Amino acid sequence: MKTINESKTENTVSETTHWKLTISAANIATLHFDVVDSSANVLSAKALQEFEQLLSRIQEETATGLIIVSDKPSGFIAGADITEFTTIDNEAEALQLIQRGQRIFDQLEALPIPTVSLIDGFCVGGGLELALACDYRIATDQPRTRIGLPEVKLGIHPGFGGSMRLNRLIGAIDAMSMMLAGRSVSARQAYRLGLVDYAVANRHLLTAGQNIIQTQPKPKRASKLKALASHSLVRPLLAKQFQKQVAKHAARQHYPAPYALIDVWRQYAGNERAMLDAEAKSAAQLIMTETSKNLVRVFMLQERLKSLGKQTIEADSAQQRRIHIIGAGTMGGDIASWCALRDYTVSLQDREPQFIAPAMKRAYQLFKRKLKPARLAMLAMDRIHPDLDGQGILNANVIIEAIVENAEIKQALFKDIETQCRPDAILATNTSSIPLETLSQVLQQPERLVGIHFFNPVAKMQLVEVVSAHNTSADVVSTAAAFVRSIDRLPLPVKSSPGFLINRILMPYLLEAVELLSEGVAAETIDKTATDFGMPMGPILLADTVGLDICLSVANILAEQLGMQIPDVLNQKVQQGHLGKKTGQGFYQYQHGKQQTRSSKQTQHSANPKTAIEDRLILRLLNECIACLHEGVVDDDDLLDAGMIFATGFAPFTGGPMQYLKSRGRDAVLERLEQLEKQFGPRFKPDIGWLQS
Ligand code: NAI
Q1: How far does residue 139's CA lie from ligand 1's centre (Å)?
Q2: Could you tell me the maximum CA-CA distance found in the chain, to the nearest angstrom?
Q3: Residues 539 and 661 in one domain
């Protein structure tokens, strides 16, 4: 196969730092994008400026068409350079930058020759906006090709003409639903939507590009029927529908971007120029909001967590991607299927076949959901092996223990494993509460033991705590972090201490919610206060979902070791067997796993003003954050924020608990905490860590 790079018939006519312009024997110009010193193409200010320069150069040539392509194996274009967002000082500067981008893409659109973007891999944000300014788009039909405008996830909306052009190309209903959710689509879905002209096999990409230039079919536009959605009589009604949809997931005061996009579309969709102007102005305003700044920060925190696992596990042979899991229960079973989904060969050990069978069933359900076509699900099943005798221990690179939470049983197991496993294998425990030091006591080489602490449900929770004791080897920790990355999870290094980081911070917040409940505040009122604050789920529903028995066991450990008080009602519920969702009753009632709503009479009788409830919940959580930082459970504020956002969904628009604390004012929060201590007692006593600057 001849790739675009290898084409011998191309002549380079101009080269800049990030782009190369070639002309083929057939007189077709090709712009190759290849950002230096970066694994992915991003549209930095410099890259855009060079692009503009080369567009002018193309106008001087007599080329019959223009192909735009990435020379990077990772993908087409990942969007604008997000690091540059943080250097923008004011709205006027933002507007200028956005208008400049629009002018460049307008220039591309206005070229008198046919233009096509060849998309292989990701094509998102500014990358898709560039592709939309071409006459045609062709994408490779493979899983890694993802196409979309995810700007709302950064608190903005497309500004380089993407909002206008996507609406024009595929109609408002599909375009807005993609942009409002920040959803990306596969090549095949993009073809069905009319977003790309063809979805082809990789080897046909270049030929398809050349053909389309030569044949010049009429560029795609939304059908008359689809275009009707943007008719001035329809827009106000549809805008209301869009707003309703968005409101289900994002409140306007926290996430203004999708609402702003709807407003721009509703007012200006009938007029391309006016829509472009409004799009630029609105995006410039959004870039300067606190929400956008915080979401950009969250994006960068995510990158930081990803970089913690950069050292990759040597994965050049299947032999080196073997993992052995002991304990096929809730956690072990789901960790096994997740690792198999991510291409590991997994052996799964338990005491009896009957304990492994349910895990295999759940694995198949996961693969069926995640892997298409069905044949891939069968291949993934072939990667998990029930292993009653623990044969897998001998060859595994990574061994994860996820058996009952009992120190002696775990110790006996580790003692046994150490004598059998490879000398370079990672020995990991998924314990949520037993100190690593206790477990490693029995090992010849205690420095080998590391915690790899997953959250439940494994397939949904992005964060994994990588737990080290004072004697854990730094190499083991970084290899464990690399392993976590290799299964597409975010590793957060934390110190071995009661509850580690996430459960410890979350617990006072959950216990305060139960305390409020004991005082007679309705569960719905408590939960609504938390979701209005920006939490994805209220604390009472969260406790019911996790299971009240599990909450109680973590609370007991923290109570024992850190002196937290547990409200009686939690003990009572567990004694009554009301464990939450899984038993049909906890603080709420459930039918077929669905929460039953109660009458509004039962739900609204709180004598506490909403802010008082909010402060009681959030300030206990913040106090624990300060304690964890003070004790060095986590290295810094940023890692703590990242952990809380990616493990618990802590209101991302705030930038995380420590960022929220800073924006509210550290002194003001401390003062409020002291007031609460006077009112409610020592559980609000400010931690000694507040004394540190
Ligand atoms: P589980 O009770 O669902 O599963 C434990 C499994 O281990 C059972 O299938 C049992 O037969 C097996 N087992 C017990 N002793 C064994 C042995 N000597 N050899 C082989 N298999 C053995 O427990 P779950 O909830 O999966 O928890 C496992 C570990 O994960 C615990 O350490 C727990 O603290 C931790 N964890 C649990 C979370 C949760 O939400 N359930 C979250 C994070 C960590």
Answers
A1: 45
A2: 82
A3: yes
